[in-house]
């Protein structure tokens, strides 16, 4: 039994905490959150203890920690976990500053402890299947990658102000996905454009709500990503890869398979519109992979380096959108 | 150049007349219709002459006739055409009475002239492709055939009264399609039920507007057909065949490929709702097959026997729906 | 906490047992199975006790029993449960004999205890949504119901011999679904045909492996159901309802949303092919409804009467297929 | 009757020539092509005369000319047509040089004669319907436009060498489509990347075969276009527009509606793979619009200015891909 502590009992902490509690090879030992009722509720639901953030990382009865706290605390907690010899799972991003990520990864490397970063979409059964088939060569060499990602609703401006901006907060998932699908061929050139078309307040806060990037890799492969902070039709998450032998894509998940036909046309159900529902299976598979890594494989992907590289791409995109010039990596 | 005369310049006569006029190996020579303006209009549009129904069949400058007149005249015209040595294409049905069809086919057989019956759906590119793949064994042995057919709107009661009833007027197309898909294994048992759910006036006129049949073939294969005289979403024409190695189906044709996603779901365009549009390509391919038969193959399908067998199935279905008992063939 | 005992620890017993163990308002107390290792395994996984079938029903620490044993034992166990004052959930069918079901339901009625029958498909999110929209009038009056159901692989002949035949064993689900979708308008006329096309051994055992029924209701509505014991493409479960205002359908669930395009066409993933996977959510929702019934609503659907009526339709279909004549109800 | 002359009897000239010959308000008078057999074949098939390129434009019995000759001759022929007072339809592009286009448009403007440029995709029924719905506000304000376009097979290097490069030869269609969908909001910033991934010989010839552009408009809207010279699955032509009220897209046209399900999945037919088939209806509608312009509306779209603006975008994309820097317009 791998003994788990979860740091942060917000909505993502609750997901990971419950997955830990239900896992046959894991046991949720402790939960910490500055907001006591949240910690208590999750502890009660899972049979774990409530602990303080000050002491939970270093507990001797804990093998692994799940960092689900606000972004600003991630790097410090990762370093504490590594120094305490714990296996660490940390929600993305490691930090909004790439140099800070580098320092943090240095500490982890020195400690020689496991670190896995929570790019959950890699574990979505649809995207994971697509990626496996790419790796198996089903569509030949990857040539063009198209990733579309739209949120159902824009976040409040208060969130936007501390988010690091759309590229670091939202598109970082797609940038990681692009790297995941490129099978090792890294982007070397980043063109980005962004606009505030959805909510003028987001623009006034200095961020964009609609954006796209164009990436070119070392081998000349091309990636297009587009994001919007608002989609009236749900949480839109799609991937398409054009290869030398064919095209492969993974589409949205609809609420049901029901379709209605009448004079207006043939209407399929809206797509699932909440990320916790859309990616419920992904979160389970992600936690499974973390446990599997601890138990047997000692392979932890996405790695800290994956976190750093995605962050650097997000930095580059942010700079490109601001300067109007491409950024080379 | 095969010289063609078209009998009947209503909407189906116009279709065939224009296909004849545009065919590289055919020439539309003459058009007849008791309604003079209709004949004149089609003649003007195609460069053909207007002729009378009394004399058009026997003209020496005509090689083949297309019978697009009302059903009650079909058998007589076929016989006239056969006796005059013409190749005859006749819209379905040969007649509403199976015995009358038998007599008519006897005349044709004696004359040794070509006869082709207008079951246009066999020539629809989608259904024809499906049938070809069935014949090629792509899904193995046929086991279950499902045919759905719904008209956009019910006909007027005046039409219903002379139509021969839904099974002979509408379902006969599906019964022919079933035979087409069964590749020679004939239905031997017919169960039918019918109701008047769409328009009470149709029920009062002694007919049904919603119906289904269940057929069993000599080899135990099973066919299900359902019809409705009204579909709010267009002209619904679908086929599905379950075989020992897989399932094959042909769906509806939508007006465009456009889809719109919003909070109500993802809506594809309505299906095409007019049979002349839906089957425009089928009518062309049907005429091509008739000309090809005359020119080279001497093979004319659907044959007069196909017309007769579909009619017998429609008779059986009518009887079964009226008596509540299956009919053996 | 509602205290649950599960009778039968085979694959369906394990599903219900685990759902009970995971339910926030239920506790799995005891498990019984003549095959001791099965009972022990499920008990170990859920923290329940192993008990004997002889004593488990009458235990005072049990509020509700889940009957997941072989069909021949269902009616007796339901009666024991009712007499002991327990809420009873029983897998379909109550019994293969309709008279036996009637006797059993009499005992339950006298006891005044809850009974719910496990027609799991009513709880499938897709079908449940379709049914809700029907009930809400989204497509107007129901006119034609089409239900297709195919198993991935035929059962062994040993199973066929004690199954009661395809209509009672397999199609009973579709017959219940038809009743569910007809919103109270009961079938009064049953036409059935069946063949052995999949496995000759099934025919030699006196059963069919390919079958279809045609039902007519009191109000003239029409239902078509077709079954096959083998589908190369997975577990095929589809419903389509044609109504006065439109058409509604619920399709299959594919393994993923991935599609691959190449010279062969555009290929979607196969449909899910194992009923426990396809209906995992349905089983959960079904158990939720049972618990909700006990806790608050005192409404238990599908009822014992639903079980009886589906059985009578299956009996009628069996008779019709054997005699070649329709059966009136 | 509008009297038409067609210049160039290659495959696109034959399309337009036949559409002219079949149009109720037009008559094909003359055909010219340096390759005499091509001119003779088209003339024979349509009842037109063969004429010489030297004299065909200025004939007094010609009202309108269709320029379907090689690109290098377009601007001269347009000018001759304008000076002779003819209505001119010219295949894209007007010229590979934007300054030459400007001069040519000056001549046309001075002559005051009609000019229409052959961006056929605007007339595709699917794309035209999508655009109409955009203009009707069905998805609100346009925010993100995604255009995917892939050819089935790369052209020979000999063609590539004189084509002006992928951006001017192939992507110009998509650049015009982008402008068409942006409803007047012009792109002002062009980022392009290109690679030779399909055929190394194309790269050696100084061109790319895989490319993408990222456009930003004056109002901050974003457009993504991607092209490949090779798609194993057919001629891929798709558009998707994300708007403030929803998303609208137009997909590919498949050869038939047939789908086959088996253990490999559910396979739809390949998409149509020849542009003359895919856009047959578009070419008809395009010619109809030209004739309608002459007859009544005096509105000719796409205009010469549309041709020029698309060319400038293609120039900008070419420059951006070569320099690695965005180009402002």
Automatic annotation (TrEMBL), chains A, B, C, D:
Pfam families: GFO_IDH_MocA (PF01408), GFO_IDH_MocA_C (PF02894)
MF annotations from Gene Ontology: inositol 2-dehydrogenase (NAD+) activity; nucleotide binding
Keyword vocabulary terms for this entry: Oxidoreductase
Domain (Gfo/Idh/MocA-like oxidoreductase N-terminal): residue spans on this chain: 2-119
Keyword Oxidoreductase attributed: yes
PANTHER family documented for this protein: BINDING ROSSMANN FOLD OXIDOREDUCTASE, PUTATIVE (AFU_ORTHOLOGUE AFUA_2G10240)-RELATED, NAD(P)-BINDING ROSSMANN-FOLD SUPERFAMILY PROTEIN-RELATED
Record-stated family: Belongs to the Gfo/Idh/MocA family.
Protein name (Swiss-Prot/TrEMBL): Inositol 2-dehydrogenase
Source organism: Microvirga alba
């Amino acid at each position: 039994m791998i003994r788990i502590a979860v740091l942060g009992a917000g909505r993502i902490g609750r997901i990971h905490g419950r997955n830990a509690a239900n896992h046959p090879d894991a046991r949720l030992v402790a939960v910490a959150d500055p907001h006591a009722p949240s910690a208590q509720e999750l502890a009660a639901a899972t049979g774990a203890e409530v602990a303080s953030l000050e002491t939970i990382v270093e507990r001797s009865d804990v093998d692994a920690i799940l960092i689900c706290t606000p972004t600003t605390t991630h790097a410090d907690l990762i370093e504490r976990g590594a120094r305490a010899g714990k296996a660490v799972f940390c929600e993305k991003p490691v930090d909004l500053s790439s140099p800070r990520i580098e320092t943090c990864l240095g500490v982890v490397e020195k400690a020689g402890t496991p670190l896995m970063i929570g790019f959950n979409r890699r574990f979505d059964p649809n995207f994971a299947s697509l990626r496996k088939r790419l790796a198996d060569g089903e569509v030949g060499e990857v040539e063009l990658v198209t990733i579309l990602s739209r949120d159902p609703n824009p976040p409040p401006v208060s969130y936007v102000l501390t988010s690091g901006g759309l590229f670091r907060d939202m598109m970082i998932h797609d940038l990681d996905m692009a790297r995941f699908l490129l099978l090792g061929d890294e982007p070397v050139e980043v063109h980005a454009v962004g606009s505030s078309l959805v909510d003028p307040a987001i623009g006034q806060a200095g961020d964009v709500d609609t954006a796209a990037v164009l990436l070119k890799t070392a081998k000349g492969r091309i990636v297009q990503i587009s994001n919007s902070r608002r989609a009236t039709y749900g949480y839109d998450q799609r991937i398409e890869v054009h290869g030398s032998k064919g095209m492969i894509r993974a589409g949205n998940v609809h609420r049901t398979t029901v379709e209605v036909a009448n004079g207006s046309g043939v209407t399929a159900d809206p797509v699932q519109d909440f990320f916790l529902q859309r990616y419920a299976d992904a979160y389970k598979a992600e936690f499974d992979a973390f446990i599997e890594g601890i138990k047997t494989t000692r392979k932890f992907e996405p790695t800290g380096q994956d976190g750093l590289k995605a962050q650097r791409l997000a930095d580059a995109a942010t700079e490109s959108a601001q300067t109007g010039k491409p950024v080379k990596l």
